[in-house]
User: Fold this.
Amino acid sequence: MEGKVQGEQPLLTPYKMGKFQLSHRVVLAPLTRQRSWNNVPQPHAILYYSQRATKGGLLITEATGVSDTAQGYAHTPGIWTKEQVEAWKPIVDAVHAKGSIFICQLWHVGRVSKREFQPNGQAPLSSTDKALTPQVRSNGFDVAEFTAPRRLTTDEIPQVVNDFRLAARNAMEAGFDGVEIHGAHGYLLDQFMKDQVNDRTDKYGGSQENRCRFPLEVVEAVVNEIGADKVGIRLSPFGHHAQAGDSNPTALGRYMVESLNKYGVLYCHMVEPRIRAAGEMYEGPHSLVPLRKAFNGTFIAAGGYVKEDGNNAVAEERADLVAFGRWFLANPDLPKRFALNAPLNKYDRETFYAPEPIIGYTDYPFLEDFE
Assistant:
């Protein structure tokens, strides 16, 4: 019976992503949870991720810092030290024991930070020295404040590229199946791509090609380090997160996917235009379809999806896979609930970022808890 139900739902059909055979298309989106004390992943993450792992499922980690300058929030994990790599290993092993594919999202926040998160209390790094005004977090009520950034010099940029390369190598050492470069949501790579932020006059600023140069140097370095078949990237060309908008997002997105095709990366994970910023949805004229058609690899769509429009996106070939965030956070057995058309647990925004190792993290019930 369950097989029949699965056959009717495009989200629950198998898919081959490069060398990875997926049993369904419901992806765990990367979700910052702020439960990694001193930027080191904790044992409670073993349960959190393995709860959401299924045979042939695809999980993407929370955003994971590539260096000591990459942090912008308390208790977010990193992967630049030996201690962090060792701490990730049992988490990766637990996910693999369930038969899931596990991707590590590599992150540098750029100017979305403040001195207290930076080494020696220095200014955060960015494409610009323009400050970011206070922002409401995606839980809807926390307000984050930021320190004015320091503009990276032309000569410093290769060092940041190298930080991503080393982080990718460390992810392989930790046992991950691949990495996702975080190029979305107003963080460092987005701060270079978007003309609302990037006001540089060197080879990394001005034209679209120049603004995309640094992100593509990161892609090239990571591909050369671990292989294109293990590399994805997340982009939000239509987003305005952290005051990072672009005057021509469709052209920016197209330039990036066409450039990514040259490297043969495994997947592109794109945020829907309806997601303007954290917790902000709107319906506008833009669509991911032209970008999906232009990209040669696996295309993952994210942003405000529920089961119905996720199924439609796959059925209409607007996406190969669909990433779910808040609903997967609150429903560790989300693919099973979709298969059975079961009701979903509601998510609690107040515990999204709470430094709680259990509450709002590993205590969301499974379906069988109600039986």
Summary: Residues 84 and 91 are 11 Å apart (CA to CA). Residues 1-6 have pLDDT under 50 and may be disordered.
